[in-house]
Amino acid sequence: MRILAIESSCDETAAAVVEDGETVLSSVVASQMVTHGKYGGVVPELASREHLRAIVLVVREALEVAGTRLGELAAIAATAGPGLVGSLLVGLTYAKSLSFASGVPLIAVNHIEGHIHAVIMEARRAGTPVEYPALALVVSGGHTHLFEVSAGFDYRLLGKTRDDAAGEAFDKVAKLLGFGYPGGPIIDALAPSGDPLAVRFTFAKMKGNALDFSFSGLKTAVLRWVEAHHMAVEIAARRALLRDCPQPSVEQWLAATPQRTLDLLASFQHAVIHELLTRAAASAEAMNARTLIISGGVACNSGLRKAAMAAALPYPVYFPTPGLSTDNAAMIAAAAFPKLARGEFAALDIAAQANLTLA
Ligand code: KG4
Ligand code: ZN
Fold first, then answer.
1. 82 lines ligand 1 (CB under 6 A)
2. Which ranges in the chain belong to alpha helices (H)?
3. How many whole angstroms from 102 Cα to the centroid of ligand 2?
4. Does position 181 have pLDDT exceeding 80, yes or no?
């Protein structure tokens, strides 16, 4: 049984064909990084236009690589939200049209559920299936959420960010310091060259739900540090580097970054990782989790992966492989399989929902 899935919630146009909920036959991702990079963040109007340009080719390639024709599919899945509404509309409308033309049923998927199912699918394929209840920490550019996941895929929200998402904090700090977009991969690559304990960042204690996150104070603390250390010249030099070369190498960034800034980046990343893992461990303990799933774009972070492994937690911790961490359509197909089994199909008039929630 094969599902074609389409994902277009933010700045990647993606399509994938997955068989039996565990074998990825194709996964095509057209990134818009170069388009948005020079603006230091995603420009929604440009994103929609790029999706329109890419969608037909990306879907065609996913079908071709998988050696699958539309009529052979068990379902066509698409992300219905959350995300940028103009971006979501492109993928969802295209999926509806394909479903209408071919008679193959449509399945609507929540993007966050996709991130969680990327890990569930890979764990199953590896012969080490996720045990339930599981705790899922979804950390991306738009989300920092902790969910309790039951064996039947019911979700209970345990905590979330009250302001910036973790990936957003990476992106904003990188932008402030003159690095490109997205900021996470650059900070990840430079942090090992700095001292993570050089700058001590503190977090205010959360009132109310102790499992909630807040990253805006950290971002402000970085801003204050930058102001106090007169960094305008080096920041201008990095912005100039970015103008000359849209995607500088790590060596180029290192040459344009003094040691104290590397220390700042390492300390910032260390603080984010500490927050994420402290709250995740507390949630896992509170709900007696049997597995910890960490997914979403920030799950690519090598410091986070190392710290999670080094923490020697009393339950297995699963990360998606890097290709399934950032936005992709294989994860949307993975989340669609249980819905296919339950006959949970979407009507062709289903609307894209920018603020769709999972729980
Ligand atoms: O899941 P994703 O591709 O899109 C959203 O659903 O938001 O996540 C993108 C986010 C961006 O904020 C990006 O900076 C962050 O993931 N990211 C990383 C890394 N790779 C991507 N953050 C930290 N370290 C990384 N290696
Ligand atoms: Zn995502």
1. no
2. 33-37, 44-66, 85-102, 111-125, 166-176, 183-190, 216-228, 232-244, 250-255, 259-287, 302-310, 322-325, 330-342
3. 28
4. yes
